């Protein structure tokens, strides 16, 4: 069964550094998402992406964040200058255009900012 | 505002006992409700959604619009049901999911 894959599984970075989290959505899916979960808190929506542009974003998704689909398969989340409070598990998800409400999630990338 | 509330952080039951994981939501329109499950060291995966009205792994959930609830139930818990369960809501506009805080279900032998 096809899966959403994320790399790396764990990323440690110094405060102020840029990080890029990578995701390969399921191949025929057209909607892509990033969510995050700070330890002990809820899974929170960050951004959705469709047709090569952001379709919705949350208040969390400020100018430090950006998303890109650089080629036909990858979907990336960039954090320009990481802060301690960016430490979280980041989940990528994608949805099937025929079933847009059913999101398939990746296994997550744990980002630790030190 | 869209909000999902799961009042229990942890629910511990014995094998064979009935299970009910509570979920209440706040949304003014017609939401779509989901239950996602995360087994140990695995990814979040869809368990069921209200529009399918199906039973998955013995679990069912009924949307009660009057009580704005979508509780997850199973008549006889099994040890392999132990996991984190998230209730989530999708509004009429957009595709984002709004999650509850999650409930850990522990099924003891």
Account of the 3D structure:
The complex is a heterodimer of chains A (114) and B (109). Chain A has 114 residues and is mainly beta. Chain A is built from no helices and eleven strands. In chain A, strand 9 and strand 10 form a beta hairpin. The radius of gyration of chain A is 13 Å and the shape is globular. Chain B is mainly β. Chain B is 0% helix and 44% strand. Chain B is built from no helices and eleven strands. Chain B starts with a strand and ends with a strand. Chains A and B meet through strand 4, strand 5 and strand 10 of A and strand 5, strand 6 and strand 10 of B.
Write the layout of secondary structure elements.
The complex is a heterodimer of chains A (114) and B (109).
Chain A: E1 5-7, E2 10-13, E3 19-24, E4 31-37, E5 43-50, E6 53-57, E7 65-68, E8 75-79, E9 88-96, E10 99-105, E11 109-113
Parallel strand pairs in A: 2-11
Antiparallel strand pairs in A: 1-3, 3-8, 4-5, 4-9, 5-6, 7-8, 9-10, 9-11
Chain B: E1 3-5, E2 10-14, E3 19-21, E4 24-26, E5 32-38, E6 45-49, E7 60-61, E8 72-74, E9 83-90, E10 97-99, E11 103-108
Parallel strand pairs in B: 2-11
Antiparallel strand pairs in B: 1-4, 3-8, 5-6, 5-9, 7-8, 9-10, 9-11
Quick synopsis:
Chain A is mainly β and 114 residues long.
Q: What descriptors fit this protein?
A:
heterodimer; A: 114 residues; mainly beta; 7-stranded mixed beta sheet; 55% strand; B: mainly beta; 6-stranded mixed beta sheet; 44% strand
Model regions low in confidence, pLDDT < 50 over at least 5 residues of chain B: none
Specify the structural class of chain B: mainly beta
Please summarize the sheet with the most strands of chain A.
7 strands, mixed
The average pLDDT score of chain B comes to 94
**Number of helical runs of chain B?**
0
Relative helix content of chain A? under 10%
The total strand number of chain B stands at 11
- Strand proportion of chain B, as a percent range, falls in 35-45%
Straight-line N-to-C gap of chain A: 37 Å
List the secondary-structure elements of chain B in sequence, H or E: EEEEEEEEEEE
Query: Mean pLDDT of chain A, rounded to whole units?
Result: 94
Residue stretches of chain A low in confidence (pLDDT < 50, at least 5 long) are: none
Number of helices of chain A: 0
Structural class of chain A: mainly beta
Q: What about the largest sheet of chain B?
A: 6 strands, mixed
What is the H-and-E element order of chain A? EEEEEEEEEEE
Give the oligomer, counting copies of the same chain as homo and different chains as hetero. heterodimer
């Amino acid at each position: 069964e096809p899966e959403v894959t994320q790399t790396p599984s764990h990323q440690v970075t110094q405060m102020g550094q840029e990080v890029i989290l990578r995701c390969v959505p399921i191949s025929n899916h057209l909607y892509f998402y990033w969510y995050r979960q700070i330890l002990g808190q809820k899974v929170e929506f960050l951004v959705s992406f469709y047709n090569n542009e952001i379709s919705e974003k949350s208040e969390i998704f400020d100018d430090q964040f950006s998303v890109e689909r650089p080629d036909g398969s990858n979907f990336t989340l960039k954090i320009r200058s990481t802060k301690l409070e960016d430490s979280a598990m980041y989940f990528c998800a994608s949805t099937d255009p025929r079933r847009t409400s059913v999101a398939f999630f990746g296994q997550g990338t744990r980002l630790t900012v030190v | 505002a869209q909000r999902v509330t799961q009042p229990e952080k942890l629910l511990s039951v014995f094998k064979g006992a009935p299970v009910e994981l509570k979920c209440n939501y706040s949304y003014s329109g017609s939401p779509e409700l989901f239950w996602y499950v995360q087994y140990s060291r695995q990814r979040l995966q869809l368990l069921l959604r209200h529009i399918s009205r199906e039973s998955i792994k013995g679990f069912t959930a009924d949307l009660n619009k009057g009580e704005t609830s979508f509780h997850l139930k199973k008549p006889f818990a099994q040890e392999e049901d132990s996991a984190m369960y998230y209730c989530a809501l999708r509004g009429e506009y957009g595709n984002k999911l709004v999650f509850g805080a999650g409930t850990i279900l522990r099924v003891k032998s």
